[in-house]
Write a sequence for this structure.
């Protein structure tokens, strides 16, 4: 219906004269109007009112990366403390705060949100949309996330950080054994980040389901979009579990409930079930989006579509389902029934199969491709080494008898870093190198990129490989020091050297980004010769993403011979009008008006932050703190007469 | 000695056998995946961003890769089923250790030390020790696990895997030491401030040595033999020590800290942290938080003569 041949008919609202509309043949004035319509307002207030998905996502990515660097610095202090036995650089109190903050930061403030942040930038571009769905909610989610993260680091700065581990097991984190505000801050930081995560999930799912360009049926979606879709559904099912258990914890601590107090009929293991029912899927929240990065990078640098698209999609979905059936493998040392544990062993082994299918398909793609060995591909190739090794140790910790020996030792520290760095951070750096030209309009230095890659790869293995042996030789995790004479000295020293090497490699990345932004080579629209839609627009993209919404005829629109029609036209250039399409086939369905930039999401986030933080100090804050939140939300949703009149004027009969 | 790789008992050696099987399978698979990657990298021609993408596979099925991917998947699934069978077999063997005639010990985890209560047997009374268990070689041991405050995990890697001590829950672990020796154990679940320094040891004695040790532990503390020791005992009873510690045979019957009736028979103090000698003991008593930050035992200021007498008396508690 919206082929541009018919567009002039669609957009001739009677009595108002011709309005500027978009399309492949739109005038320069119409394009300029389009860019102005979708721009964020200038100035300081404008910056706080910004809702363009690229602006918000850029801030989100930078914020998560800052948390990554901070979390890494904490790890560096810990590794330095452990370089030699019986060192006393830092004492147990600070060490416990550091490893708690390190784990919490990396899981809640970096790994999960960075994947949502990258998706919030790329998904609208990949599916051919002008905006992300619910752009104000997207901005609100970012501010909430930022304030939650600042809360955690502010508590570390004033030395009242949580010190009961990122998993915060009760009763250690409960009222009797964690006096002070640390655990309350931890639990409330969870509330912030989970709220943000759930909102992002809704934003991304809606964008993917309803805002794809016409013709991009589900079976033509890029695999990164599939990975994002699957991940966000997992977020919706997993995160309520941790919000529930952290809320029960804060109630136990602040208002004297007894959810986790066995003396009053509570249950200590309840925490572990609820936490790991979230905690294990969380690993896959971190791991599945990078599978999408890899499925974007490999085809581009092998010059062919990925082998086995349907198998790849089904493997992602299977991984998501199985991920919810593994949580008990974190609890093999508890007194749960043995038969039940065997079930979770079987499920944990089974989840290796969909991952194996994807790895085999990628190897097949590389095998039959023509390879362009650039930095993004190097980071992906490291995945095959590191993640596969992490998968092998995963098979070991899935076994009840083996886990009884290695559980809570450095073996598991090695395993989880092989999985999370190999499975997420290496592909993420590959993704940064791959999409940086799109984000910033400049090409990162290839030479610095290779230096960074090799330092990271070698440093990573020097740090974490010896930890496997340390665990087998009996070194438990979460220890601030260890005695001489147990044979752990040399391996710990090696791990510390490796950690400093990783720090150097990340420093090189930061230098690379800064130098590139300052005087890097300008990037063309499509520097890699890739196949997906984000490369069809300028680098960086204009505020409205697409001058004309593309019509999609295949999985790799940039590679396939063009078919007609190529574009949709006729959407307003002077208002935020978007095309909404059907869920399965992406058939044009209706046009929708999107909200304009607003300061209210920021104010609402500030009000919510006051409510959350004050409630740590008095339960009554939940009552009086909700008043400003309600006022801000009413301001946010208050309809304007002018925008109503504008929308009514544009209503037309079909 | 604290390692899962040198088992001294049947349970740990069963786990180690499973480890060898799993490690072998995993190494073969890992090598296979890397080899396939390397071959793909070496054989594929090179390209640049201008190379036209090969879309031919959109129309035809690539039979070669298709077959390889299916074969790889089937082989992976079969290997995983094989490992699952090996896991279950090991698991059943572990849970079926014959425990007739077992030695029963109840171990309680405290922040940050271990109490062990030996059950009465063969007409002998039960008795309590701390941070050092003795077990007879060749006889199964059933340890009931109790948590006094937060979750701790009982773990002696040379003898068996670990088991959590969870407040409000009952659990136990059964193992058998088959080789005499001293095996170090350590709390494996993060339990707060001094989780790192919450160790203990299991001494596997020959049955006759064990019987002698147990007989000695059952006895109350011997009366002080000389004036210095007598003075030391008075210092102990008049200071705050007795509020937390028990020394059987004296009025001291506190239960918050370790039972010290036979302190001098132990090799270490402060939950496996320091060698048990007069120097360490006197430094420890004067200021425990300086040696083990966060420890519950407070510093006590004694006159030098009193401290020396106290250490002498404690040294007689063999």
């Amino acid at each position: 219906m919206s082929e541009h041949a018919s567009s002039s008919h669609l957009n001739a609202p009677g009595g108002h004269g011709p309005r500027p509309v978009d399309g492949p043949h739109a005038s320069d004035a119409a394009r300029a109007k389009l860019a102005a319509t979708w721009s964020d307002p200038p100035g300081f207030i404008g910056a706080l009112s910004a809702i363009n998905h690229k602006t918000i996502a850029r801030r989100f990515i930078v914020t998560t990366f800052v948390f990554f660097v901070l979390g890494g610095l904490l790890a560096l202090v810990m590794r330095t403390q452990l370089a030699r036995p019986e060192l006393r650089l830092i004492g147990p109190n600070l060490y416990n705060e550091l490893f708690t903050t390190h784990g919490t930061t990396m899981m809640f403030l970096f790994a999960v949100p960075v994947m949502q942040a990258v998706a919030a930038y790329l998904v609208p571009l990949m599916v051919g949309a002008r905006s992300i769905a619910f752009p104000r909610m997207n901005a609100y989610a970012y501010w909430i996330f930022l304030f939650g993260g600042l809360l955690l680091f502010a508590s570390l700065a004033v030395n009242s950080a949580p010190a009961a581990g990122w998993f915060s097991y009760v009763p250690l984190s409960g009222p009797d054994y964690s006096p002070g505000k640390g655990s309350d801050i931890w639990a409330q930081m969870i509330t912030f980040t989970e709220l943000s995560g759930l909102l992002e999930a809704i934003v991304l799912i809606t964008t993917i389901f309803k805002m794809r360009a016409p013709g991009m049926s589900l079976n033509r979606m890029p695999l990164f979009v599939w990975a994002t879709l699957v991940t966000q559904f997992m977020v919706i099912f997993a995160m309520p579990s941790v919000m529930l258990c952290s809320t029960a914890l804060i109630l136990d601590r602040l208002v004297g409930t007894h959810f986790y107090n066995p003396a009053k009929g509570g249950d200590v293991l309840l925490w572990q079930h609820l936490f790991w029912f979230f905690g294990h899927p969380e690993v896959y929240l971190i791991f599945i989006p990078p599978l999408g990065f890899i499925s974007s990078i490999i085809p581009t640098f092998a010059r062919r579509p990925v082998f086995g698209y349907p198998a790849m999609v089904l493997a992602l979905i299977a991984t998501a389902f199985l991920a919810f059936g593994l949580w008990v493998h974190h609890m093999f040392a508890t007194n749960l029934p043995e038969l039940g544990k065997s079930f979770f062993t079987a499920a944990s082994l089974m989840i290796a199969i969909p991952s194996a299918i994807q790895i085999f398909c990628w190897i097949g793609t590389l095998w039959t491709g023509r390879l362009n060995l650039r930095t993004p591909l190097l980071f992906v190739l490291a995945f095959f080494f590191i993640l596969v090794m992490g998968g092998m140790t995963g098979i070991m910790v899935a076994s009840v008898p083996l886990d009884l020996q290695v559980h809570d030792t450095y073996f598991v520290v090695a395993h989880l870093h092989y999985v999370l760095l190999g499975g997420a951070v290496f592909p993420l750096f590959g993704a940064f190198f791959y999409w940086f030209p799109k984000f910033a309009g400049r090409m990162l230095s290839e030479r610095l990129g290779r230096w960074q890659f090799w330092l990271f790869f070698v440093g990573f293995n020097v740090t974490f490989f010896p930890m496997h042996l340390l665990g087998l030789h009996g070194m438990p995790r979460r220890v601030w020091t260890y005695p001489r004479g147990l044979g752990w000295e040399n391996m710990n020293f090696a791990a510390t050297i490796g950690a400093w090497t990783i720090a150097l490699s990340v420093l090189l990345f930061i230098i690379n980004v800064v130098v590139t932004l300052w005087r890097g080579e300008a990037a063309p629209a499509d520097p890699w010769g890739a196949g997906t839609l984000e490369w069809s627009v300028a680098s960086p993209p204009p505020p409205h993403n697409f001058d004309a919404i593309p019509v999609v005829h295949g999985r790799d629109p940039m590679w396939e011979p063009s078919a007609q029609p190529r574009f949709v036209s006729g959407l307003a250039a002077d208002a935020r009008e978007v095309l909404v399409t059907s869920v399965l086939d992406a058939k044009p369905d209706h046009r929708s008006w999107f909200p304009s930039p607003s300061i209210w999401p920021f104010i609402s986030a500030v009000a919510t932050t006051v409510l959350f933080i004050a409630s740590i100090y008095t339960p009554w804050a939940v009552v009086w703190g909700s008043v400003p939140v309600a006022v801000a939300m009413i301001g946010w949703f208050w309809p304007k007469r002018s925008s109503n009149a504008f929308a009514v004027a544009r209503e037309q009969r079909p | 000695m604290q390692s899962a790789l040198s088992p001294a008992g049947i349970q740990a050696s069963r786990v180690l056998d499973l480890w060898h099987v799993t490690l072998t399978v995993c190494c073969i698979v890992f090598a296979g995946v890397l080899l396939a990657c390397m071959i793909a990298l070496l054989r594929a021609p090179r390209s640049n961003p201008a190379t036209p993408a090969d879309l031919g596979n959109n129309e035809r099925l690539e039979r070669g890769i298709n077959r390889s991917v299916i074969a790889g998947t089937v082989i992976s699934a079969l290997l995983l089923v094989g490992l699952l069978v090996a896991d279950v077999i090991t698991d059943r063997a572990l849970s079926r250790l014959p425990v007739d005639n077992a030695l029963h010990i109840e171990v309680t985890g405290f922040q940050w030390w271990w109490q062990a209560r030996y059950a009465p047997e063969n007409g002998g009374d039960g008795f309590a020790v701390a941070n050092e268990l003795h077990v007879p070689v060749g006889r199964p041991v059933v340890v009931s696990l109790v948590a006094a405050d937060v979750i701790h995990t009982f773990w002696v890697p040379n003898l068996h895997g670990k088991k959590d001590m969870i407040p409000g829950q009952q659990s136990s672990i059964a193992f058998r030491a088959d080789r005499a020796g001293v095996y170090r154990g350590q709390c494996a679940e993060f339990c707060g401030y001094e989780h790192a320094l919450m160790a203990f040891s299991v001494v596997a004695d020959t049955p006759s040595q064990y019987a002698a040790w147990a007989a000695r532990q059952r006895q109350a503390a011997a009366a002080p033999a000389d004036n210095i020791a007598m003075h030391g005992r008075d210092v102990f009873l008049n200071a705050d020590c007795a509020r937390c510690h028990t020394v059987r045979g004296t009025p001291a019957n506190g239960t918050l800290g370790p039972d010290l009736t036979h302190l001098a028979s132990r090799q270490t103090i402060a939950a496996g942290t320091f060698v048990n000698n007069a120097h360490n003991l006197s430094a420890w008593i004067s200021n425990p938080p300086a040696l083990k930050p966060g420890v519950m035992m407070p510093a006590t200021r004694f006159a030098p003569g009193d401290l020396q007498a106290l250490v002498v008396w404690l040294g007689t508690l063999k």
